[in-house]
Write a structure and sequence with these properties.
The protein has two domains: about 35 residues, no CATH class; about 70 residues, 3-Layer(aba) Sandwich (Rossmann fold). Helix content is about 50%, strand content about 10%. It has five helices and two strands; from the N terminus they run H-H-E-H-E-H-H. It has a two-stranded parallel ribbon. The protein is globular, with a radius of gyration of 16 Å.
Length: about 100
């Protein structure tokens, strides 16, 4: 993550209530494994940075198994988990292209 982004996150998460909310999000996420979710039928764009240490390549690719609508998987080389911070121009370009293809 770029230095300025780290500083911005820390300026927000330095507040006790914000940090508790962030930690609570991850605590709650563990319960999602037992939730039944219907397949995704809307056009989906999945952008994955190949340096993401939180979501592995297999997990990212297997997301397509849960999509019945159009699904596009794009790998962004050298980018980690915070893809919007690390490669905002690439993300924006892909999202605009996706929206143009699926108005």
């Amino acid at each position: 993550m770029p230095g300025p982004a780290v500083e911005e996150y820390l300026s927000v998460l330095g507040e006790p209530a914000a940090l508790e909310a962030a930690v609570a999000w991850y605590r709650a996420a563990g319960t999602l494994a037992s939730v039944e979710v219907a397949p995704i039928s809307v056009p989906t764009l999945y952008l994955w940075g190949d340096a993401d240490h939180s979501v592995g390549a297999s997990a990212a690719r297997w997301t397509a198994d849960f999509a019945t609508g159009p699904f596009r998987f794009e790998i962004v080389p050298g980018v980690g988990h915070f893809i919007t911070d690390e490669a905002p121009d690439i993300v924006t370009a892909h999202v605009l292209e996706h929206l143009a293809a699926h108005p």
